## 1
Amino acid sequence: MSLEIENLVMRFGGVVAVNDVSLNVKPGMIRGLIGPNGSGKTTIFNVVSGYYKPTSGKVSFDGKVISGLPAHQITALGFARTFQNMRLFKTMTVLDNVLVAMGHHCKTNLWQAMLNPVAVQREDKMLTEKALHLLSLFQIADYARERATSLPYGHQRRVEMARALATDPKIVLFDEPAAGLNEKETEWLSETLLKIRDSGITIFLVEHDMKLVMGICDAVSVLDYGKKIAEGDTKTVSTDPVVIEAYLGKEEDL
Amino acid sequence: MKNTFKVILLGVGALVLLVFPLVAPNRYTVHIVNMAGIWILMSLGLNLAMGYCGQINLALGAFWGVGAYTAALLNTRFGSPIWINMPLGMILAGITGALIALPMLKVRSHYLALVTIGLAETINIIMVNEIWLTEGPLGISAIEMPELFGIPIDGAERFFYLVLICVVIGYLVARQIVNHRIGRAFIAIRDDETAARAMGVNVARYQVLANALAGVYCGVAGVLYAHMSTYISPDIFEFKNALFVLTMTMVGGMGSLAGSLVGGLALPLTQEWLRAIKSWQLVGFGLAIMIVVLFMPGGVVGLTQKIEQAGGIRLPWARKQTEGKPVAEEKLEMEGPNVA
């Protein structure tokens, strides 16, 4: 069930956003993906989750090539993702946000929706219970009936994570989940990510918060200008001179 | 307490509707209300496609025409009755809706509006030019008034009940759809297509479905119209009607089925009262759209909800928070496919 990215190239016109990157995410691990702004991290996420077709190279999951499949099919294969800018459904309640992600649990079709309100009601009740349980794991069940975007920022992040998990994923791609969170919230986040991993869900994490990354990742890959410049466990990576140079620049002799 | 009030309100409403044709001042009034019912059906269709799924669709006049021409041709050429014409009209108009949705998958916002206008015009031109099929600009006359279970539905008063049944069924079906997973997927697509994809929503499929549903609703309206007026011609189904439906839906409340009922009833009646200033009607619609967009983005229904929130009161007919809610201007500024 591992995710394999092989020789991935993503070009936008003349810009090479991802340049020949290969990496894998093994089941049950937290793989961090770090690098300065614009180094191609989110582009890799967008390829993996089906928003971009790679210029060349391939992405496979569990031995099956998934690059080029539409996003909803990739989700159906067990992928979920969060977004840098969250993208909650802005007119929906917290509960409905989660329910949208549970579409695969819905067995009733259009005809039943129109002709069999009893079956739909039964299904709705079942799904709502499931969704509320999920929300309670994120301690936001009390806000279930409120408009998702009216919640405080930290809680919106929780809604987004709950929504991603509602798709029943095998692997979740978190795109900067700590962005905008305070220290306490980040601490909660790192505990939660570990809990998610321990429940058997693989995590692929893009994050700028180095304390978080170094604290929870089992392995880290580093990108710079679209190229992978380093890889390994957190200790190796954080002491790698190439990585330090990419982040801080090289000391010049004056 | 609140529930009893609701029941009473519903009961009184039902009673008023049932006796309306008997107490109406004249047949013409009933006819106008029947026409309003037909508009309501189209408005419900537009609301599903545009209010819920976020797909601008200005081809409604054409869907309506497809339904009407199906009924008219089948009836005048083969003498087929309304209960056969109705499902066929629904299917054909639904297919038209789905077909129009295909190019819609590639374009967005203003371009989408233009594409739907273009397609509607094309269908209208076919109605005018393909004389062998449609009788051309002269139109089709002598369509029979329907007969159901041996009862001839021959006057506006009797037709009223047929329209009423269609509107009630249409509304209930639409309500079932928007409260179902399908409705949630529609709203998800409207709110954020990119996120909807990531949640496993097959966006293209739901967009086609939404427009097919709009087609089906207009198809019902078309079949009813053909059998009610007994005469149809291409100019009836011109673009201006799509604009009329758009206006009534926006005034009533985009993204709220009750909005379709309110707008679909209010606008045709207002139009009737303002018959004297006919040439100014279009100006009036334009102004109405502008006022709604600027000052009451949720339409009349949205406004009542705003009053509720501001005053902390619950109007007796208010819906639960979890049900579909009218959206503000968000809907109108649909984003491009930026993934960041």
## 2
Amino acid sequence: MNSPPPLSAPRTIQPPSFSPSRLLSQFWRLTEYWDLLLTLSLHRIRIRYKQSLLGGAWAVFQPLSLMIIYTIIFSKVARMPSEGAPYAIFVYVAMLPWNFFAASLTSASNSLVSHNTLITKVYFPWEVLPLSYLVATSIDFLIGVLVLIPLFVWFQMGVTLHVLWVIPLMALAAAFVFSLSMILATIQVYFRDIGLALPLLLQLWMFASPVVYPLSAVPERFQAWFVLNPMAGIVDGVRRCVLHGASPDFHSLRISLLTVLLLLPVAYGFFKHKEASMADVI
Amino acid sequence: MPVSTSILEFKGVAKRYTLRQESAPVNGLLARLRSKPVEYFWALRDINFSVQAGQALGIIGHNGAGKSTLLKILSGITSPTEGIISLRGRMAGLLEVGSGFHPELTGRENIFLSGTILGMRRSEIHRKLEEIVDFAEIRPFIDIPVKRYSSGMYVRLGFSIAVHQQLDILLLDEVLAVGDHAFQRKCIERVQVLKNSGVTILFISHDLKAVEQTCARVLLLDKGRIIYDGLPSEAIQAYQRSRGSHFGVRRTQGPPPVEVQRVAFLTEQNQHTDHGTTGEPLHVELLFHAHAPMDNLAFHLLFYGPDGNLATDLNTRTELLSVPEGTAAIRFVCDPLCLPLGLYQVDTIIERVGASDPVEHVLGCAHLPVLSPQPVQGSFQQPCSWRLEQQ
């Protein structure tokens, strides 16, 4: 008989108990699933446009057509102020972070329920599922950014180094989506109402965020309340650094950052707490 | 912590499910928030056992005995309510062949998807890709979507991925009951290879024959508890006892004119026995009571094997019988018994030639465990004699 191979330290499976250190170690274990996240995300992208005629061109076509619709409605009909920039590009720049937020939140919140057969059959840290949708939507975001380049050339506009602010701003948006989607996806396992309510909520949320109008158009006395919405600081921040070559507004950004830093551990703890019994319910 | 040689240990593990009342969909949410848990159900209780590295452990039991719950807890899909499991090394489970396959993706893409879901690294999959494809015998179809695969190709690929990863503990749930016979044999051989290379195997099944071929030790679960832990041959007798001795289910409407009373197993010496042995004689006695004289009757004893298929039909059809009023018995002499190892359910049918419905039909009159001193290859042991002839 051959000698047994060296084995790693024993690990245990036991009834769920929650301590910050346990949560932290679970969070670190996520790095072991990097390959799974990569594979799942790649497949999301491949599946999305399979058996469609235009394929990947949809990633370009979708935001461009929305830009044209919004420009006609809010610039030609409603005459919305656009802080001196052409309205089309003004709305397009804000739509990039917003669409990333809305699309990834929708798909990630549905990710557990849409993988119910997987969840009852095999275990891996299930937060990889919402994360993979987040990664897949990031690709759409990057394609949207590429489309921005010819638009800038067309409108004869330039950018400054402040454009690099987009990276931390989008990281913040991603962390916000991840936190929210862990909560919503978990609730969705128990109550399917989330999937029905989310499109409506996102529509309202978009109009409560400075996407089709500038933050400066919001009356002074409402602004303090307005920036409590983390997406307000992010969308406005992206517009400032891309369009105006300025730094983001740090007051509203601080609020966004604080919200996300509080929400992320709470959401992760909630998710891990419910994960133990999810397969029994889904 | 004391050094133990066990790779896997269950200590007092229990799982409780909460049964809620199903509410109407209209006011689903509110009703669900308001409804109190009505009942608890213990799917597993007080499970204690340990497995040595390189051992193959079979877990058997009837439907609902807790087999799947045990595997789900072990693979992390659901958590135990009580107790603790400690294990060492890398473990992967296969609760269903082809878990995580996406129908739109090609076979190759699905190998990566399913493999990473099972915990493999992409580099490991790249290394094993050829082996996986060859084992599954799907090379010409590797780049077409799996939705175009036959069900056989689908399960072959799924199984192949699962058994080609670097593992210390492998969980198998009924997966050997897939594909055609040739592939099943290949699967069992592969499991043997893994076992010989030191992989610990937990094999959950209700197919005793498959368990016996793979495992030297069997746990028998009944109503969430371990009621036997030991050799496969003895587990089968315990399995029989756990079914209880209650008489089966009558399928005929109203009181039958000829009523089956008992099916008993006897040895050549007329001693009652609770089991049969492959290759040795067995007598089966069917005791019945006729409420009125009847003619043109044929009696059947149907033996259903562990896989649920009809294994054999003992009958009196060669000669139609007439029975007087009163109690009588028919003795079937099997010399020798050719059935292979397993637990057989015996159904009885009494039919009257010319009538469309049987006179009497009872499911599960008796259960016969059959032991085999030597493992039977193939579906039954054909008795034969042989001689050497000089040409």
